[in-house]
Every structure is written in structure tokens, then in C-alpha cells.
């Protein structure tokens, strides 16, 4: 059976919480890899999600099982080889997943009502899975770090595809935007600063800073650990944070410090050259209450100049856009995988962008419209619909980056397969489900030690 090694990284959809919360999934262990288990719900969830996303090219259940077992082998080998990930990586990934949930369900309150659990409970349930997923990614990175792809290999790969099997790409678009963020008023900053100064006063009077951080900090990743960032390498945190850290002595606290994430109160625990350990309490402004009138007026003026041809879009985006992810590349929204400024005009596109483009003509600018960034900030944006590319069968001229990605992925998969053949004897692999043993006999045979 053909193995789908391209599925090695198992993502953790937030919908998994919904299934568990309703108690409708009949679960059980179907496989064991060393001390790690694969549940029937893991297999069902992975299989059904791929079916929903791309039913024509979705992997079979046996191919999904293959992928899940290889993931667990990587996880087991990571433990054997003492591969680690830092807490701050887990915290960042976990916070990103919670932000995705908030976007999906509309608000934190809706999440709590849907699952009958607090956000802290949901994060605690997900934390171990997030760490394991990062460990698997780190193992994959180590295995494939030396794998490269050359233009001649991409061409050879393309030429090996039968003409009647060439991928068919849907319509694509080149779209850019310029974003301006709502500003926090001086009054709101003063309120947050006063709260932080009060926490500082209480800590100086003897209260435990870590407990204050757990209670009050709005950095959800570090708050559960008392606001701790341990053994951080210099250059990791934003400059404002690190500037404050390096002005402190161990045991000292900063005054309130502004950054793009909010306002911080920092306590330095330890510092050794380029590595430090610190705690902080972060307070964020209420982005739902910010006034967008000023950025709207500013961006409307920029739009007028763009429409009149007095401003070049790329230059304007680089100079005026406050979206770091796109301003450096001239405002173009890039495909997250290929990094190319071409987006598929289909269900994979952000719905708000999709419906906006549906009402626009190519070559035009949208009106100034409200916008919420991925990290929850409030702002406004103007969208530029530059080009629409018609659907077509793959060719090297238009689709080189996509083909390069596929060819590189296959080459990496081959490296992982070779690694697995050498490694499988180091871990215990067992499939317990009798029906799966019969259904996926050839997959299971490949795991036999």
C-alpha cells in the first residue's frame, strides 16, 4: 500500500474539544507505541477532517493510521534522544490555538458555554498534545534538515507526472491590503499603568509576584506558571521587554513598560550573560472599545490617493501599513505555505476576504472596512484586488513554487521513510484493534520489527 508520509505532522483541530464535550464518541485504544497510545477518536478525527477538506484526494483510514503510528514513533524517539521544546514555544502555540478558537466561536464566553469548561481547563487539556506535536515537528526537522531540492529535480518531478494526472489548480488571485490599527487612548493606558503600579506596590509589600501574575496577567501562556519566562536567550522577546530586563538587577521590578502586546510589569529573577529568567504581568487594552475614527480617516485619505493614481500601492503599503506580516512585501497577502503572493479563490480563503472580493472588480480598491488581526487587534484596512488568474492544469511557468513544494515534500518523505526503517526496531509498536489488523494488514506489516 502506498504510504502517505506527507501526513506525518498531526494537527490538533479545536473541534476535537467539541466531540469530547458532547460525549458521543465511543473511544478506545487502537494502537500502542512505547508509552504512547492512539485512540479510535484520533483516527476518526484525522480521517473525517481530510475527507471534509478534499474528498477526492483524501487518504484512506489505513493511510491515516500509518501517519499516526509514525508520529508516535517520532515522539518515542524524541524521548529516547532527549529532544526537547521550550516552554515558551508551547505557550506560544497554545495561545495561538486559543486565539483560533476565539475567532471560530466569536468570544471566550461562547467557548465556555459550548464546552462547559473554562479556558484554563481547555488549555490544560490541550497542553500535553501541543508539546508532543512540537516534539514531532522537531524530530522531523532534524531528520530532514539536510534535504534540499534543485530546479532540475523540480523539472524532473514535473516531467514524471502523466499528462492526464497533472494537478488542476482553481482560480487564484493576487490581493494586497493596507492596515491601520486603532490606537489605545492615553486615558486607557493610564488606567492599565495604575493597575500595574498597584501590583508592584503589593509585591514590594510582600505579596508573591508569581501569584499576582497568575491572578491578573493577560498573557495566557505564562500566567499559569506565575508569569514565568525561564532561560530566555537575548533577542527572543520584543525590544521593549528586553530593554527593561537588562536595566534590572535580579529581584528588581520595572515600571510599566509598553510593547505591541500591551503593558508589562517585569520582575527579573536571574540573568547570566545572554540568558535570563523573568516574570511579568501583562495587561492588554480592551480592543473592542478602541476608537477607529482616526485610522479610518487616515486610511481613507491614502485610498483616495491610490484610486487617483497619486500613490503606488506597494510603496504605500511599505510606508503606511501597520501589518508586519505584509508591509515588508509591499502589502501582498501570501500563501502561508509557498510564500507566493497568489491565493486560491476557494473555500480555503478567509471568508471575509472571499466575500469582499466577490463584490469587487479586478484592479479596484475596497472601501475602508473594519478589520481584526489574527492576534485580536482592532483596525481598518483597504484591499487591493490586483489580478485574477484563471483555473488551469499545472505548468512550470506559473506553478513552479507549488511544484517545488510538492517535490521537496516527497524528498523529505523519502528521508523520513529511510529513517523509520532504521529506527522502528528501537520502539515497541502494537495495533490492538482486530478489525484494523485485517483492514490494514499491509500497513501493519511494514511496522513489524
UniProtKB/TrEMBL annotation:
One of its GO terms (molecular function) is peptidyl-prolyl cis-trans isomerase activity. Keywords: Isomerase, Rotamase, Signal. Gene3D superfamilies: 3.10.50.40, Porin chaperone SurA, peptide-binding domain. Residues 170-270, 273-384 form the PpiC domain. InterPro entries: OMP_Chaperone_SurA (IPR050280), PPIase_dom_sf (IPR046357), PPIase_PpiC (IPR000297), Trigger_fact/SurA_dom_sf (IPR027304). It holds the Pfam family Rotamase. It comes from the Bacteria. Residues 1-20 form the signal peptide. This is Peptidylprolyl isomerase. The lineage of its organism: Bacteria, Pseudomonadati, Bacteroidota, Cytophagia, Cytophagales.
